[in-house]
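Problem 12. The chain below contains 516 residues. Write out its predicted structure in token notation.
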Amino acid sequence: MKRHLKYFTLSLCTFLLSAGQASVLMTTLPLPGLQTSAAVAAPSPNAEPGGPILVITTTSDPFSNYYAEILRNEGLNTFSISDISSVSSEMLANYDVVILAKMTLSPAQVTMLSNWAASGGNLIAMRPDKQLSTLLGLTDTASTLSNGYLLVDTSKAPGSGIVNQTIQFYDTADRYTLNGATSLATLYANATAATSNPAVTLRSVGSSGGQVAAFTYDLARSVVYTRQGNPAWAGQERDGLPLIRSSDLFFGAASNDPQPDWIDLNKVAIPQADEQQRLLANLILTMNLDKKPLPRFWYFPHGKKAVVLMTGDDHANGGTIARFNQYKAMSPAGCSVEDWECVRGTSYIFLNTPITNAQASAFTGDGFEVGLHVNTNCANYTPTSLETFYAQQHRTFSNLFPSVPVSPTQRHHCIAWSDWASGFKVELNHGIRLDTNYYFWPPNWVGNRPGFMTGSGMPMRVADLDGTFIDVYQAATQMTDESGQQYPFTVNTLLDRALGAEGYYGVFTVNASFVA
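Solution.
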């Protein structure tokens, strides 16, 4: 379990709650590898631990590198990465499974991959080059479907445990008919209108146990767009409320550009991106069973199914000290912070918050996080102005709290989020590795629906508009004290769905403001 903790579980500081078979972790930020220089660092986004899985990428499309992040999130840490230009038949012979990212292939590369699969290899192709259609058992219809839905066949092994409702994808899917392949998921034109075209397929090839699978859309691109919103809406104020926020990337009903919401709020209860990632993981494991079982790490420590990430903003109200002392009193006697047994939380503070350096340092030493609440004066920013806000406010914070390390996590005051990625880039420039600015709000849009605005409950690294990795994790804030959500209904619903038959596992980030 320690290997999995290094890169994506949420904190050194936790509180373990048990209720029969249902166990939940309550914790603070940040990621273990982000805490201090003494902690084990999270791997590079392009790290490749090695093993029987090969991810084939292409320099022509940075989104192709995101499959490594998907595998890491799914606990499949036995993979290598290679650009298609370096792949040879000799290299392929060393691997059981190949994930082929979306790319254009040469005829020689098509032959190489086809021969490898026929000799017993397991190939999973993402929005495959049409030259692979015959190998995949598909017939191209020369038509496409963009930003639609799909329904997974849960009666088949790869679909086991996946939601049996339609879910959204965000890419252009090529429409095929089956010509020897078996459908594992079907494309839908909308939430209820099925097509005759598959979304995911599987076919056996050759006489040596080879199998070939296809996602007819680019899963990596779809996951990024599900999590980070509509790139075409970046920099737009759409909800009619002053200031551009991350929620504007999902809000459809702009007065000057009315469109459907990016996230179908009738599906917001489902972590739609996570379910599709899990489908890929299931497919890998199923396809490789005749060769060897593949190790897969669980999402959270101790086999837990949910994490409640406790954060709050202290706008100089002075509530941090009392709240943190309350958490300490709630913690079991003799609890271990590093073993996720203590109640802990994060406070993002204004620079004039009434807490001393000694008090903040003591709390930090005890496993809490006291961090700067970057303030853009509730105004939109440019990359340059945001860099200035960070530099000036971090300098002041360090002068006021010289014994407190600069926080490696962040949430902006007023949730200012003026474009697609400059917030992430400025954060990374200042050593911040986890962001909570994706915020399920405003109340009239949320409609008291517990769920996943970003289609995910998993902290994962983000991507720029062109798909280039940015080494900052996104942990969306699904529960707030200003979104019109009812409590304990909201948290109970999220946890029930994580612990129950749905299996909607996740890290559920809370913003409960610190008020004296």
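Discussion. DSSP finds 13 helices and 24 strands in the chain. Students who got a different answer should revisit the alignment rule from Section 12.3.
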